[in-house]
Amino acid sequence: MSLHHCCPGATPAVSSMATAAAGGGSGSGISSTVQPFGLRGSGQGRLRLASRRSRSLLLRCSASGGGDGGGRPDPVLEEQRRRRAELTARISSGEFTAQGPAWVAPLAARLGKLGPPGELAAALLTKAAGGGAGARKGPELPQAVGSLAAVTGEAFFLPLYDLFLTYGGVFRLNFGPKSFLIVSDPVIAKHILRDNSKAYSKGILAEILEFVMGTGLIPADGEVWRVRRRAIVPALHQKYVTAMIGLFGKASDRLCQKLDKAASDGEDVEMESLFSRLTLDVIGKAVFNYDFDSLSYDNGIVEAVYVTLREAEMRSTSPIPTWEIPIWKDISPRQRKVNEALSLINTILDELIDTCKRLVDEEDLQFHEEYMNEQDPSILHFLLASGDDVSSKQLRDDLMTMLIAGHETSAAVLTWTFYLLSKYPKVMAKLQDEADTVLGDGLPTIEDVKKLKYTTRVINESLRLYPQPPVLIRRSLEDDMLGEYPIGRGEDIFISIWNLHRCPKHWDDADVFNPERWPLDGPNPNETNQKFSYLPFGGGPRKCVGDMFATFETVVATAMLVKRFDFQMAPGAPPVEMTTGATIHTTKGLNMTVTRRTKPPVIPNLQMRIISDSEERTCSTASMVVSTGEDQQGEVSTTRV
Ligand code: HEM
């Protein structure tokens, strides 16, 4: 399931495209038999140019290697290459030949010179032809036509990548009467997310997530967002995040114990769902001091959270918004189940808020910037102690938002990191070396985390290849210019982080998992130092509030797990394929074989010398250690002899 910022990103994209297409009414142009994407309104000449450029990019892409660090081909890379080659061939064959009115742009330009009536006619003509640029002037955006089949058939951001290689950093994707702007250019992404962020809202995202997040921080816009952001950001101060490292360690240790059992029983494990449970347990404690303990058992509340998450995911990918049909929404068993789940979660959240209020009232409170209650360091406690003047409904929306935001994303990062590690054994070996060197027998401390530099680079690189979410959603609130292209108010925009992170112009061997691309002693890569070509946590005023939290959480879990276990894809496991989701999910789980690591015995440095027949054989025993097996913690113990 997926929804988090999932919400903020990927999925609603599909929903909105699909919903628009389905509800598009007359002549939506959507047919399950048409080609996935076609070109419209760009003219044949432009198409040829685009094809040539795309071919050269494709060549660069496929030349980029993509070994597994262990000599085996990466099936994901292979599949991507196959699809790209197929698309290139189809573009070359003329399948995407422009059919639309190539005369629109020149005619609109001529009309525009005839004064205000002509300008109005030009705007109407452009709009009618699918353009929709506002009052500003400029060239027409390259246009592609999408079909519902193409979007629902696979992870929707994949065809967007192929189209990016063909049409460039910003183009219009038409779905029947609706259209969406697809942005993959770092300068334009920066403009929308940071430089002119006030001119953009969360648009469709807010509409889709309203039922679960209300006016929580992710979907909120305008004044509500400003006020809530100002209240929530201080809660994630440095002392809080440092305190959370103990929580990350404890939860990861619980997962280790579960894996210990699977390893002893020789059972394969489905890691994606285990990571989802790990991060649910973490975020419940971190946000409102609630122990879901979902790694140990399924209880009603865990089930309710998953029902709600699955619903949000379904809504964000469903072609028809059945949940809005008046009678259906009351009688549908699915909707009734969702309503029951939401009502259970709300009851629990209300109870937690009440309990926390009582605790804060009884506390001898001295609130300050880095305030934290040692017994209950949760964000909820901070917000209440800060005197945050907010309705219980808004507080609930915020808590629910953070629960979802901090759960699905981190789980997806861990899932794809372990998938990558299984494909790149050399990276895994280096990672294990670092974990062996840095981590002691106890739970990791902040000092340890700072030393886990290679692990951090592995997470940075995993987030580059599998950004969560892969797409950010915005809607223009006013006319604006995207590069040289004018756009109007009300445009739905998808900023493809996936495309930015894999752009062959920006990245060497863009598709290859190579943590070494980030120097260990260099700065932590982020949107600023990578000039918006790398933005795993977004950028600008709406950047993730949990970036540090999430980085530490995934670093701690990864280091603890690889220190204790080896992970391999389970024999006979189905191929790992992607689906969305707000975050990127596997289609059939991440089935792995987990084995307890036994450190290789240290070879004694024997300085044997035969003195004479009569003398004793001697050896320097001082440095000799042998492995004597595993202690109760599963660690290899050594004994001097
Ligand atoms: C690896 C894990 C995570 C990733 C990859 C991630 C990614 C993102 C991204 C890309 C955005 C920007 C969305 C947009 O601009 O539309 C975002 C926003 C947000 N994230 Fe995260 N996030 C992660 C973990 C967390 C955690 C742990 C929390 C809470 C503790 C959190 C809370 C939020 C919130 C509240 C926002 C909305 C901020 C706003 O709109 O002002 N995230 N996240």
From TrEMBL:
Molecular function GO labels: beta-carotene 3-hydroxylase activity; heme binding; iron ion binding; oxidoreductase activity, acting on paired donors, with incorporation or reduction of molecular oxygen
Fetch the InterPro entries from UniProt.
Cyt_P450, Cyt_P450_CS, Cyt_P450_E_grp-I, Cyt_P450_sf, Cytochrome_P450_Monoox
A single GO BP: xanthophyll biosynthetic process
- Family annotation (Pfam families): p450
Q: Where does heme bind?
A: 544
The cofactor(s) it depends on are:
heme
Entry annotated with the keyword Transport: no
| Keywords for the protein's UniProt record, in alphabetical order | Heme, Iron, Membrane, Metal-binding, Monooxygenase, Oxidoreductase, Transmembrane, Transmembrane helix
Entry's family note? Belongs to the cytochrome P450 family.
Write down what this protein is called: Cytochrome P450
Provenance organism: Brachypodium distachyon
Q: Tell me the lineage of the source organism.
A: Eukaryota, Viridiplantae, Streptophyta, Embryophyta, Tracheophyta
